[in-house]
């Protein structure tokens, strides 16, 4: 009857050892996990603007970074790369995206169609990964901006009209002044001729 307690002790020792091993493994996985920081989760932009989708990550080793774009038209892969290597850019975003080693990307000359959710996934060599999302809203140039441009152009046209009118008035005045001067010269020359005739 005494062997039973020793078996229980052995089972307890094995289960405590397994528990300690699992906790150590979990701790090491946590210490080697990926952390991701997104300073600005929502960005508003206008058409033809260059946009920086800024992120920062930390992990052990060199991770794989992937950006995808989700919108009403579906999910689309933008770019995938490892820091220090050449990026694999999709055909739809060729010459429109620039990658940075900290995981950020820059989109050039965005349009309304670029509005949507941009998802970054950072995957560590051991397999742990972390993802984050940035919402981008691209709008046309605001009506107030167009109104301001129209008012400014109207102001410039009015100034140009005033300047043209002033130039026309100055030209008329100069023409009248020259005409009067010529008339006076003619009168003076005729008076001189008459005086010469009288003296003769």
TrEMBL record:
Signal peptide (UniProt feature, chain positions): 1-26
Keyword Lyase: no
A biological process term (GO) from this entry: positive regulation of excitatory synapse assembly
Annotated transmembrane regions: 146-170
Keyword Glycoprotein: yes
Family matches, as InterPro entries: CD2/SLAM_rcpt, Ig-like_dom_sf, Ig-like_fold, Ig_sub, NK_rcpt_2B4_Ig_dom
Keyword field: Cell membrane, Cell projection, Developmental protein, Glycoprotein, Membrane, Signal, Transmembrane, Transmembrane helix
Record localization: Cell membrane; Cell projection, Axon; Cell projection, Dendrite
Main location: membrane
All residue ranges annotated as the Immunoglobulin domain in the record: 40-139
GO cellular component: axon; dendrite; plasma membrane
Membrane topology, as annotated: Single-pass type I membrane protein
General function of this protein: Cell adhesion-like membrane protein of the central nervous system (CNS) which modulates both the position and complexity of central neurons by altering their membrane morphology and dynamics. Involved in the formation of neuronal dendrites and protrusions including dendritic filopodia. In synaptogenesis, regulates synapse formation by altering dendritic spine morphology and actin distribution. Promotes formation of unstable neuronal spines such as thin and branched types. Regulates neuronal morphogenesis and migration during cortical development in the brain.
Assembly and binders: Can homooligomerize through cis interactions within the same cell membrane.
Protein name in UniProt: V-set and transmembrane domain-containing protein 5
Species name: Rhinolophus ferrumequinum
Name of the gene this protein is made from: VSTM5
């Amino acid at each position: 009857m005494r062997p039973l307690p020793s078996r229980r002790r052995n089972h307890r020792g094995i289960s405590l050892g397994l528990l300690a091993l699992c906790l150590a493994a979990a701790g090491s996985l946590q210490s080697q996990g990926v952390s991701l920081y997104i300073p600005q989760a929502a960005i508003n932009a206008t058409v033809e603007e260059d946009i920086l989708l800024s992120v920062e990550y930390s992990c052990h080793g060199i991770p794989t970074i992937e950006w995808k774009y989700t919108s009403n038209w579906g999910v689309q892969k933008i770019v995938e790369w490892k820091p220090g290597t050449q990026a694999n850019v999709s055909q739809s975003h060729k010459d429109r995206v620039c990658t940075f080693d900290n995981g950020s990307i820059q989109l050039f000359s965005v349009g309304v169609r670029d509005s949507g959710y941009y998802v970054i996934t950072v995957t560590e060599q051991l397999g742990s990964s972390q993802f984050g999302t940035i919402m981008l809203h691209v709008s046309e140039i605001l009506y107030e901006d167009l109104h301001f441009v129209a008012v400014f152009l109207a102001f410039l046209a009015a100034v140009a009209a005033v300047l043209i009118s002033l130039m026309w008035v100055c030209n008329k005045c100069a023409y009248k002044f020259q005409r009067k001067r010529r008339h006076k010269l003619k009168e003076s020359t005729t008076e001189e001729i008459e005086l010469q005739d009288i003296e003769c």
